[in-house]
Every structure is written in structure tokens, then in C-alpha cells.
């Protein structure tokens, strides 16, 4: 059963579309950052500022500082498989599959396949994108200016990145970026699970896709608009370098709460009677 749900989740047009959307969002952010050779420096001065455009800054800009991925992540995560309870019911597939296995096994297999599909759809293009960036952009930073001096030819003038584990930005940049990619996977898995929980209770598949996205955006504008609690915005914690007040506490507490509540929602709402109706 698990193998079948994996096949349906990963070998589908919806999963491919999610990967394409994530890749396009990442590419838009990278385009806004600029080419490997800085257009702001005269060619004869490029050797003076070799890291004006660098791989690490480029990734941060592509992921969230300049790209739209941060806004569409929950929608992308839900797209591959979150509405599958509804499509299984409307197509009659559920009648066929429950003649071969138990509802409990069917539900658990779908839950696992969905969260993995959601996580992969939001993180795999980032991993591939970072590999491509490292081929074309130089790996290094412009020097940190002395106290009182201005930054020179630096696109992101940070000693440390904002928020959760931002101190790794210059000391261990690869580790920091792999943390961001892993975080994108976890958030994608959590939002996909939220979509599956919604599809357990409603009959319209578009509600299952849009509900997590709508909650994410509304929560951001409500919470993010209040400076004292802006660090708890789900958008800021998906890409924690957007805000200084994000922290491991805000990021992982919010992520854990979303994942726990979404999981409870799936197993509490996805009853055999509800899914059949």
C-alpha cells in the first residue's frame, strides 16, 4: 500500500508542477540578485572585489530575500497529494483500494507519502539550485569593514544572518544553507500534512490546497504586523533570515505545533465514514 501511495504522490503531474513552480520561484529570486559577475563593478576592478556576487548571498536572495518562493511555499507543498482523500473519493478509487487493504493502512500510507511529497517539492529544487549556483558563483565573502567604516560592494551587508542559526552564515555558510534546505523540507512536510487534514473534512479539493496557504498568509500579516511578536510569523520562520527576532524557539516551536496539530487532524478527521461520504 505504501509503495502504491508513493507512486501516486511522486509520479504525478501535480508533483512535477510543484517542482517546476519551486524552481521558477527560485530562478526569479536569483535573477533579481544578479549574474555571477557584478554589473556594479567595472571589469578592470573585478579582481578587487571578487566576492561582490557570491554563491552564499545568491542562495539567500533566491530563496527568500528577492524571490517569491517564501509566499507560495504552503501552496506548493499541498499541491502534489494533499487533496488525495477528495480525489480518491470522487474517482471511486477508495472503494477499489479498500477492497484490498484496511482503512488504517490506507490512511497511514497516504499520510507518509503526502508529507514526503510536500517536503521534497519545497526542498529538492533548492538543493539542485544551490549545486548550480556553486558552479557559476564564487564561494567567498567580501571582508567585514572595520568599526565605523562602510561596506564596499556588498549586496548583503551582514556580519551574521538574521534569526535562527544566523551566526553560521559567515563561519560555516554551507552548513547554514543546508540547514535552510532541511528546514524547507520540514515546513513543506508540515504544510502538506495540514492540507491533508483539511481534505479529510471537506469535499472540495481546492479548499484543501488553498486553506493552508490562506492561513499562512493571513497569519503572517496579522502576526508579522505586530513588531513584538513578528518573530512568530510562519512566513518569517519558513525563511528565518528575513527577521532578526526569529530564533530556534520560534522556528521549531511553531513548526512542531503545526506538524502535531496537522497530524492529529489527519488521524482524527480521516475516518472511514467521512472519507466515503
UniProtKB/TrEMBL annotation:
Keyword Transmembrane: yes
Origin superkingdom: Bacteria
Keyword line: Membrane, Transmembrane, Transmembrane helix
Residues annotated as transmembrane: 51-79, 111-137, 175-194, 206-232, 252-270
Protein name: Uncharacterized protein
Organism: Candidatus Cryosericum odellii
